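Need tokens for this chain, all 520 residues.
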Amino acid sequence: MRSLRTYLSVAAVALAVSLAGCSTAATSSTSTGTTSTSSTQQVVNASTISEDTHFDSDDLTWDTASEVAISLSDGGSKVTSSNTSGVALDGNTVTISAAGTYRLSGSLTDGKIVVAAGDSDTVRIILDGVELGNSTGSPFVVQSADEAIVYLQDGTSNTLTDASTYADQGDDAPNAALYSMADLTIAGPGSLSVNGKYKDGIVSKNGLVLASGNVTVNAADDGIRGKDYTALLDGTYTVTAGDDGVKSDNDTDEGRGWLLVSGGSLTVNAGDDGVKAYNTLTVSGGTVTVATSEEGLEAQHIVVSGGDTTITSNDDGVNAAGGSSSTSADTGMGGPGGGMGGGSQEAGDYTVDVSGGTLTINSEGDGLDSNGSATISGGTIVVNGPTNDGNGALDVNGDLTVTGGTVAAAGSAGMAVTPGTTSTQSGVQLTFNSSVAAGTPIHLVDSSGKVVATFVTTKTIASLVYSSSAISDGQTYTVYTGGSADAKAGLTTGSIDGAESMGTVAAGQYTQAQGPGGRR
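Here are the structure tokens for all 520 residues:
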């Protein structure tokens, strides 16, 4: 019989941030649509989205009779509506200089749409079957406006493709296939394909709201970037990027540099970070899938209060790091939970807060990593963490507080971190002398013979932390491996018929793992 050590979590009061979803819809006739932060953690919710961003429902409401219709064609673009104000045509360049609603259709193989409106103007551009390309730069540039709205007409497909090399590569020059110096909103039920061959796909140098749409971005560098904030409210966004997938990166202005996903679907394949914010990254609804990345979610403060998030990463899955705090550096050597620290590590102004939703992580580095503290008060967290002893499924420099929810964190044992003494929900940690092979069901059975938890690992593991309301402090549980499970991976139900008993463990008794950065 293999020996195993038992570790427990006993916990404290958690900070819970509840963020609701926001939805968007659009109709025609009068075409109505319905669709905060430096070193201080920003809280943004759907009820105040119009206060926290430039976006409100009026942005998607307009009178179709006032639209200016523009037909695009190489060498023959023209205004086809009786209302021609606010539009200038110069070869294959179309310049819009006034507030209003402009409906574009047709194609330009080597052209450009330029918005150069007043600082108080809202410019709404409807893409109604548009294909734009440019051989020397960006095909769509918002130079000035109060707000630019790109609306994707229902039933249409639209494409923006920039040049592989830009003629103007100055510091303030456009560097994306869709580039805006003003606040930018993308909405509508239609489709948009963005090919950022030079650097980025979609960029707003102010705020960016993704209210709806079916949008695909392929970018050589960053996929989607809103400087002040990036908010996904609804729609389907698929991003493939050579560097970061989706981000907000204002590192100078108070209350900026945050990212929110409150609805819709986001799928990211990134060469570096999947979803990233300088300040606070919040998932309160919708579906987030980071299919490939170096680090999946990264921000100074990370909040998961709803939705379904799945992360695959070559390094850390969830990483509270960076930002404006310099109290602690991320060396990948976390210490024991409960504020004990590890090695020379200090807890900085970094937080991970999970209060709802599901969070599934498959990481080669640390699974859930905070250079400060972490709080779990709800939701379900499953970590298939590292197989090497230089990283851990959980890695928290400060307090790891568990007051609710369900946590199953599997991985190597060398840097295993457990919930700390501030926790109020009990749990166990199993550390095996011999590795448990991928695909093996692991069962916890109480004294009555009831299976209270079944977990199936996707990797070879040596350690498993499990905490849920089903674990009673001080009670004894028998650990089994083998038998059967009703799912191929993760938390599920199962049977111990044919399983092997590995011994018993007592909830409420634990010893912190010894390894790099660990100490009792």
